[in-house]
Amino acid sequence: MRCRFCEKPAFIKLHYPRMYLCPEHFTEYFERKVKRTIERYKLIGPGERILVVVSGGKDSAVTAHVLKKLGYDIECLHINLGIGEYSEKSEEYAKRQCEALGVPLHIVRVKELLGHGIGEVRTRRPTCSYCGLTKRYIFNKFAYDNGFDAVATGHNLDDEASFIFANLMNWNTQYLAKQGPVTPEQFNGKLVKKIKPLYELTEREVVAYALANGIEYHIEECPHAVGATTIEYKGILNDMEEKRPGTKINFVKGYLRKKHLFEAELQEKELRECEVCGMPSSGEVCSFCRFWRMEKALDFSLRRK
To answer: Residues in domain Rhodanese (predicted)?
Structure first.
């Protein structure tokens, strides 16, 4: 098959919209969609500094690559989770990705910072649950301490569709009320704006972009993610997408149109400053400080030359 625009051999067949594209025209298509997403949802304002959280995997690597190519002011943060060889490989990929882009990379190592890696804490709490809590706190605190205007993550359309699907299945209206391509800054900037530039691009398209542009990435899944229900939900949605192309994007856009129905049920808890770290908390001590039994605030401030 031939590219729709130049008659070169096709690199990928897009199912929605239906067309064949060569590497060059697919790259243009992908970057145009990212730019359109940024503009449509007002993800990035003029002159804003963006902290891209890079894991070493494809999604965050592609996010950093495209934002840099589009001319945005970015730096990257890698959180080494302390999960043995998996985390060591992830860090090495993150380093190579940022070197190739020529952007600063900051590294926070959980085991050095908190004394235990993810999976090493004796707790009844699921590993993925406190891992997510830890990552969200660290990247938000790092961004706040260093004056970044937004934190960009590599969540793609598949991630968003499966998250919405999972929470609809369990009627978790609190989560459904807050989901979306952008989470605005809150609490006098202590909750930094979160953005998802790949919000309307599928995982398949992200993989294809990485291949077309020679982006190396860590392909191993986190060992703690085995058996996660989100993987099952992604499988269900993939089956539906194969039968009816466009299912995922229409599902997510439909959710955004009806999101106000869930917001109506949202009862926002009044936030206060955590007594330990000073960051936003619904109680006297925030979830991060309580879980990790912190006695003083972490300071991620960089010493700029």
So the answer is: 21-95
Domain residue spans of the chain: 46-267
Question: How far from 40 is each of 66, 70, 158, 197, CA to CA, in Å?
Answer: 17, 16, 19, 11
Nearest to 62 by CA among 36, 101, 99: 101
Binding residues for Zn(2+): 3, 6, 22, 25, 274, 277, 286, 289
Q: What angle do CA 229, 227, 243 make, to 5 degrees?
A: 55
Q: Report the share of the chain in percent with pLDDT over 90.
A: 91
pLDDT tens-digit readout, 87-126: 999 999 999 999 999 999 999 999 999 999 999 999 999 9
279: which residues sit within 8 A by CB, 6+ positions away? 137, 140, 141, 144, 190, 273, 286, 288, 297
Say which residue, 145 or 263, is predicted with more confidence: 145
8 Å CB contact between 38 and 197: yes
In CATH, which superfamily holds the domain spanning 46-267? Answer: HUPs (3.40.50.620)
Detail the residues annotated as belonging to a binding site.
Answer: 3, 6, 22, 25, 274, 277, 286, 289
What sections of 48-121 are H helices per DSSP?
58-69, 84-101, 110-114
pLDDT above 80: residue 56: yes
Helices 203-212, 58-69: crossing angle, 10 deg rounding: 60
> How does the average pLDDT of the chain come out, rounded?
95
Which of 27, 65, 82 shows the shortest CA–CA distance to 197?
65
